[in-house]
Amino acid sequence: QQQQQQQQPPHESPGQQVLRRFLLPVSECSMTLESILEDLRKDPWPVPSDKRVARCTGCALSVATSLLDLALPRRGARVMMFVGGPCTSGPGAIVSRLKTEDIRSHADLRRNAEPLHKPACEFYAGLSKRHVVGANPSKKGKGSGTQAAANASAMSCHVVDVFACSLDQVGILEMGELVEATGGQMVLGDSFGQSVFKESLRRVFKTFDADMPQDGGQMQMAFGATLEVLTSREFKVSGAIGPVTSLGKKAPNVSDLEVGRGGTNAWSLGGIDPGTTIAVYFDITNPGTSPLPEGKRRFIQFLTKYQHSNGRTRLRATTLCGPWHNPPPGAGDKPAPPSGGFNNHSNMEQPSPVKMSFDQEAAAVLLARVAVERTETEDVADVLRWIDRSLIRLCAKFADYVPDDPNSFRLSPEFSLFPQFLFHLRRSQFLQLFNSSPDEAAYYRYILNRENTTNSLVMIQPTLLSYSFNGPPQPALLDSQSVQPDTILLLDTFFHVIVFHGETCAAWREQRYHEQPEHEAFRNLLEAPQGDAQMIMDNRFPVPRYIVCDQHKSEARFLMAKLNPSVTHNSEGVGGAQVFTDDVSLRVFMEHLMKLAVQS
Hints:
By secondary structure, the protein is an alpha+beta fold.
């Protein structure tokens, strides 16, 4: 390093010369770095049995971000933090070293009984105050200092990633706002030896295919991204939900009704990749009393600006247009229904284009993001009631039914799956905090808010495949009646991929029937879900945890907890496996929905 320092170009400032003692290109220090990593050993300093290990995670992160701020201002870079336990010393600590003091829980946070939580949140957000703040420092539900720091970080091109591998909490809840503001990645695992960590780390540096024009061989990451939304005058921007930070740009198309990060039509995204997804919400401002001219079209333009991994800045403009639908006069009053009931089209009347164009998958994900956003400032029970009221209002407006007759309730194919999605959302780990830590809840919600519609739907309502001797794999209902002794199930929850063997299949495997030549069909049956599970894991980030379990064994709980409890210990249902829960089934949920939706 001394020789390299003597060979510095004369135009380098003294500060840059000092930085080269700590930061060098990989080509110049790869051998030294590899030898340092190979020589790393566990700290031999003894730790008293009544104390936790001393960790100064916050201080280390502060040093790393300071070096990048000085060495690479306004240039793309990543700070990757690998955490094996909670921060116990210095700024950012979330628990003391004494094991007599427990780490914060959901109950402690509800009672504001955790004195270290708020200072830690403010510290991690404050790490970005060295950058230029160009955004609105206010955000509903959070402190102005915290949001200003997050805005500052988002204005930079530096990304903070957190790889947490520990059986204990590490402080993801406190670090979450900094990671979100910079567009960073989060990975949560049990140990650094798992494929969840190893493969996820490798996929951060994934590159485009070599034959792709312009981007061939380049890394699939970008930095310093911003998003601006322009609209025609008939509607305005209410806000955005995802890994975004408001830039506080007040434009004529900004609505007074805020959803998520509102009050602006421009946001900073920080680091992005091809899978980053932002939910943008709009508010129709044209009053219903003054219909739009026939043939009037709406326009939306998304301006995305980012720094490519090759260092060049790119601007992408995406423009969309479509027609408006004018409801017939008096349609909003909804007087006494005709003989066929509300929304009945037996008289050959054309159904509403709004109804026919409803995208129930996208709507479920958009509503899930709003629900998760509201959990930051509201109690989960209030959020669940808001979901129920929203679903009842939607069904009352768009379902076909006769008033006060639940048996006449019908949903068109465009709406038929929407109640089912919300049923599983209410039972998901995003809103049910039982059996999850604050770190896990923050991690799950962060991933939901940045994934696309397909992946988000898998998180809300996992997919289930059934394998049997009767034919090829078949999609199965996410129901306890799908559990049969002679079948193998493959469950994909996005965070877990589970291969579940029925009781009979597990017994045959234990007796090694699959190793006998005459039972080749059974061997193929065992191998088929494992191959499909590997295909799922090969194309996903973060890499899901792979679980192989048998019916009535302990790890079977990962599958049983996701199933609709149509057969429980309290019911008299026939077939399937019993789910030991007091939750209502989908059938009971739909019965209550139909009863409330048709009330006059």
